[in-house]
TrEMBL record:
Keywords: 2Fe-2S, Iron, Iron-sulfur, Metal-binding. Gene3D superfamilies: Rieske [2Fe-2S] iron-sulphur domain. It comes from Aplysia californica. The gene is LOC101862186. Pfam families: Rieske_4. InterPro entries: Rieske_2Fe-2S, Rieske_2Fe-2S_sf, Sol_Rieske_ferrdox_dom. It comes from the Eukaryota. PROSITE patterns: RIESKE. This is Rieske domain-containing protein. Residues 6-106 form the Rieske domain. Its cofactor is [2Fe-2S] cluster.
């Protein structure tokens, strides 16, 4: 069953730059504050375990992404989708098209009560499906 866990205060997260890495139930995650929203994702990149929690934020049409420092993969903060630009190799004058690889990085629910920040791990849902980021962020078994 999913459980909401107190992980800190919003004022503290803002004070340290709007980002916090932590371990919840043995899972390595990070929280990002963007405007009035909070997001939580697995800390290590689904691609090869890079330090996604240290990635820059990049705005793309319709998406806010975190960019992995290792190979520059772009992952949406809201859904954990991997994004890429597709080109037509037969017509290089066509502009690249933004495409999704689907959900690759696990995200978690973040809620706020006053200044208190709570995380609900998406792995707490018995119906959750395995994602590629699980291999780098799950508790050791
Ligand atoms: Fe993140 Fe390769 S490890 S893009």
């Amino acid at each position: 069953m999913s459980e909401s866990i107190l992980v800190g205060q919003l004022s503290e997260i803002i004070r340290v730059g709007g980002r916090k890495r932590l371990t919840v139930r043995g899972r390595d995650i990070f929280i990002i504050a963007r405007g009035s929203e909070l997001f939580a994702l697995d800390s290590f990149c689904y691609h090869a375990g890079g330090p996604l929690h240290m990635g820059d934020i990049e705005e793309m049409p319709g998406y806010t992404c975190v960019v992995c420092p290792w190979h520059r993969y772009k992952i949406t903060l809201r859904s954990g989708e991997g994004l890429y630009h597709s080109i037509d190799p037969h017509n290089l004058s066509k502009p690249p098209v933004l495409c999704s690889k689907g959900v690759k990085q696990r995200t978690h629910l973040v809620t706020l009560e006053g200044d208190d920040v709570y995380v609900t791990l998406s792995t707490g849902d018995p119906a959750h499906t395995k994602l590629e980021s699980d291999q780098y962020n799950s508790p050791a078994s």
